[in-house]
Specification:
54% of the residues lie in helices and 19% in strands. It is an alpha+beta fold. The chain has two domains: 117 residues, PH-domain like, CATH 2.30.29; 47 residues. Helix 5 runs antiparallel to helix 6. The longest helix has 25 residues.
Length: 176
């Protein structure tokens, strides 16, 4: 689905297209860790049911850490769901948008109803249909005056998306 198709399909729900692959990768990494731990323990002759259960618990914990949040967006909302819970904001009622730098960059969105969602901005960059829904509703919040803080963060993401789209066009046309 292209950006124009996403613009026409505003009633539908957009989601992170790489989420399923990222979950598969997390399962694969946790499985490899479990297999290595069990093989090492068995090779050393130390494998017992208790140690096996411990390694399974460790692999499950590793999966929980690696499992990405599922990001979805509709006409006026954005949600981010982990294994345990889902958080949702009304993007047409945004009051603040902040970029938080740290070990990994995060985008924190808050709405007038008290909702708060924290996502990786890379998800918006990779998925134009998600960005379209967030940006359209955020523009409405700016127009209505509810977005008090964060228009700069949104412009920064918009410039990054535009820059990466232009680079993709140049690469595809051989003008790189």
């Amino acid at each position: 689905m292209g950006l124009c198709d996403a613009a026409r399909d505003t009633a539908g729900t957009a989601h992170d297209l790489r989420w399923a692959r990222d979950v598969r990768d997390a399962v694969y990494c946790a499985g490899v860790l479990l297999a290595l731990l069990l093989l090492l323990d068995r090779g050393a002759g130390l494998l017992t049911p208790g140690r096996g259960a411990l390694w399974i618990a460790l692999a499950l914990l590793f999966f929980a850490v690696l499992c990405p949040a599922r990001v979805r967006a509709g006409a006026d909302w954005l949600s981010s769901g982990s294994l345990v819970r889902e958080r949702r904001v009304r993007t047409d009622l945004l009051v603040s948008v902040r970029c938080v730098d740290g070990l990994s960059q995060r985008l924190v969105l808050r709405d007038a109803l008290g909702g708060r969602v924290e996502i990786d901005p890379e998800v918006l960059v990779r998925n134009p249909q998600l960005w379209f829904r967030v940006e359209t509703a955020a523009r409405k919040a700016v127009t209505e005056g509810t977005l008090l803080c964060g228009a700069t963060a949104l412009r920064r993401i918009a410039r990054r998306i535009d820059r990466e789209a232009a680079q993709a066009v140049f690469r595809a046309s051989g003008l790189e």
